[in-house]
Design brief:
Rossmann fold; Dna Ligase, domain 1; D-amino Acid Aminotransferase, Chain A, domain 1; 3 domains; ligase activity; nucleotide-binding; ATP-dep_AA_Ligase; ATP binding; ATP-binding
């Protein structure tokens, strides 16, 4: 079986998750990327252009599957898979999920939910009357970059973000107040399977940095699934974020790929399944297996820099087991790195994930590790 995987920058999800899974399934893998120097053995290609992607694949050899875990390449990869008659996502659903304005418009038109939202193209006038507080975000942004809560000066916030993102469209939408949750799904042509979900802890406002995710599989799944159906999302993996507001659940964003920031590994460990293989098998034409009940409790804690400076001390890439809890630490920075605070996920120093019988023991293991092996930034 020949699998083509499209990618931009290297990620742990691909390097440590999908590529080993593809090899375990017996696939011959070709990575197509616009950064071949960063992916060993990869083929250079303008992966943001579906025409170039199709041309490159036709030249290299007939595919059995075309897959991407990149936020930015879902529509292009879906178009290429459709061209070759392979299982894949609906490119329209990929476009609607990625574009936060299209997502809001589609959900409103389908009668699923209505959230105040305005698209601001480059140079568009800033609306004078908005239902403060509001959130301003890039229309197709990722990693909480330039997402900010605005209490009274919308024009100032838009001008500030536009300086850093000239020529990009923004979205202004009402602030959704309440607990933030996720729903993780995997689907095939027969429908969606709910894998579970997480409760998300954010850092201090006005920014939206995710600091911790804790296993929380129960929730208002029907509303979220109705939203996914309205968007046409179903095939493959999807990570959806929503808020439990006083008016009911409301979608924050739909990421049409598996959950990131090492929570994909955590999800696999909590369920006790080869998650990355499951996802690839769907793209190879197999049915998505029925997920089993969770075998454990899990948490992922992002270690966020709280000051600018230079990393003086840092724990390494390591794992441990204590008191029935398995724990992993993945450094994202190194000693000597200079830290400049961005108030985004780019401020992560490392990630600790832990799986155990219950939250009490998982919390204790994470706290013990952090106390024994701190990151020091001065």
């Amino acid at each position: 079986m020949r699998l083509y995987l499209t990618a931009l920058k290297p990620t742990d999800s691909v390097t440590d998750g999908f590529l080993p899974a593809a090899r375990a399934l017996g696939c011959e893998v070709t990575v197509l990327t616009d950064r071949p120097e960063r992916h060993p053995g990869a083929v250079g290609c303008d992966v943001r252009d579906p025409r170039a992607l199709i041309d490159a694949i036709e030249h290299l050899g007939r595919p059995d599957a075309i897959f991407s875990n990149s936020d930015h390449l879902q529509a292009e990869t879906a178009l290429a898979a459709d061209y070759f008659g392979l299982p894949g996502k609906d490119w329209r659903a990929c476009a609607a999920a990625k574009n936060k304005f299209l997502m809001r418009r589609r959900l409103r038109q389908a009668g699923v939910e209505e959230v105040y939202s305005v698209r601001l193209g480059p140079g568009d006038p800033v609306p004078e009357r908005v239902p403060y507080p509001v959130v301003v975000k890039p229309r197709e942004g990722v990693a909480s970059e330039d997402v900010v809560l605005v209490e009274d000066d919308l024009a100032g916030a838009v001008a500030d973000i536009s300086k850093r993102r000239p020529g990009e469209a923004l979205v202004v939408e009402e602030y959704l107040d309440g607990p933030l949750r996720t729903l993780e799904t995997l689907g095939d042509d027969s429908g969606l399977r709910v894998l579970g979900g997480f409760a998300t802890t954010l850092g201090p406002l006005p920014h939206f940095v995710e600091e911790r995710l804790d296993w929380a599989p129960d929730g208002p799944h029907e509303h979220v699934l109705a939203a996914l159906r309205a968007l046409g999302v179903g095939f493959g993996a999807c990570h959806t974020e929503y808020v439990l507001t006083s008016r009911g659940p409301r979608i924050v964003e739909v990421n049409y790929r598996v959950i990131g920031d090492h929570c994909d590994f955590l999800l696999a460990e909590v369920l006790g399944v080869p998650l990355f293989e499951w996802i690839l098998r769907v793209h190879l034409g197999d049915r998505a297996p029925a997920p089993p009940p969770a075998t454990a409790y899990g948490s992922a804690v992002s270690l966020v820099a709280d000051r600018p400076g230079t990393v003086k001390e840092a724990p390494g890439h390591e794992s441990a087991e204590t008191g029935g809890v398995r724990l992993w630490h993945r450094p994202l920075r190194a000693v000597g790195d200079v830290i400049s605070l961005t108030h985004t996920n780019r401020d992560y120093l490392g990630v600790v994930r832990a799986v155990g019988p219950d939250r009490e023991r998982v919390d204790a293991a994470i706290a013990g590790y952090r106390a024994a092996k701190p990151w020091v930034v001065e």
